[in-house]
Design goal:
Layout lengths: L9 E5 L8 H14 L4 E5 L6 H16 L8 E3 L5 H9 L5 E5 L6 H7 L4 E7 L2 H4 L3 E3 L6 E4 L1 H17 L4 E7 L6 H18 L2 E4 L5 H6 L17 H17 L4 H6 L1
Parallel strand pairs: 1-4, 1-5, 2-3, 2-4, 5-8, 8-9
Antiparallel strand pairs: 6-7
Length: 263
């Protein structure tokens, strides 16, 4: 668990410069889990072009209004491209305990600024060496890690900036999303490489969200796996996915007693 001043919100940054990793889905589920447990949370979407997180929460509000439902959840504030002043103002706004930030799937000034303010950095990756290359490079024959890659170096610099700014630390968590039981050898090789790199650059590896159609189906309604009561067609697969989400939240080890009791 990272540390902060205790008087400001805990900043959770979803960061990954590769699209399609489940970053926005993870951001929404973490934010709504916090809100469902009475934690005052703000959501910032730093990708004004795609606005996936903002759209997800807009869909939620529209679905609730259409069907007369009282669904919990914050709105997402979209920060304009390279508007560092707006990001700083949003981070300084009073009245919240947690801020969840979804960064763009590309290099950006906003993304780098968010990393430097993170208490918890969550990097979802698909379980493949294509996504692993974001973090580190491996030998083609042995699959041994040869060196950290550009994103690991970017996080290292962000950690240095954070320590210099206020002495705080960053808890970096890598989520292994879309684990497939059909690719056991690849899964073992990626897992071994991640464990090796984790010791070198300092992150924790936890299971993320599996490859489930459920997550894509929930987006138009803005619902999450915490809203099974609103899904009359809920199946055992939904229940299993919700258990998976709870395990993810527990593994993040966020500093909120209410969330720990709920888990």
């Amino acid at each position: 668990m990272s540390t902060n001043s205790g008087s400001r919100p805990h900043v959770i940054v979803l960061g990954n410069e590769k699209g399609g990793s489940g970053k926005s889905t993870s951001a929404v589920h973490v934010a709504l889990a916090l809100a469902a447990n009475g934690i005052a949370v703000k959501v910032l979407d730093l990708d004004p072009r795609q606005r996936t997180t903002a759209r997800y929460l807009e869909n939620r509000a529209a679905w609730a209004a259409k069907h007369g439902l009282a669904l919990t959840g914050p709105e997402a504030k979209v920060i304009a491209e390279d508007d560092l002043a707006a990001l700083a103002a949003a981070l300084a706004a009073p009245g919240v305990q947690a801020i969840v930030i979804d960064t763009p799937g590309r290099d950006s000034a906003l993304g780098r600024a968010a990393l430097a303010r993170a208490d918890t950095l969550v990097t979802p990756i698909n379980d493949s060496f294509i996504d692993f290359d974001l973090l580190g490079q491996v030998d083609a024959d042995s699959f041994k890690v040869t060196r950290p890659s550009f994103y690991a170096e970017l996080v290292w610099k962000a950690r240095q900036a954070r320590a210099k700014a206020d002495g705080g630390t960053v808890d970096w968590v890598v989520l292994r999303n879309r684990l497939s039981p059909l690719e056991a050898r690849n899964r073992r090789r990626v897992g071994t490489a991640l464990d090796e790199l984790a010791k070198r650059v300092g992150f924790r590896v936890v299971p993320g969200l599996s490859e489930r159609v459920i997550y894509r189906e929930l987006f138009p309604k803005g619902l999450t796996l915490l809203d099974l009561a609103q899904l009359p067609e809920a199946t055992l697969s939904h229940v299993a996915a919700r258990a998976e989400l709870r395990e993810l939240l527990a593994a993040l080890d966020l500093p909120f007693a209410a969330l720990k009791r709920a888990a």
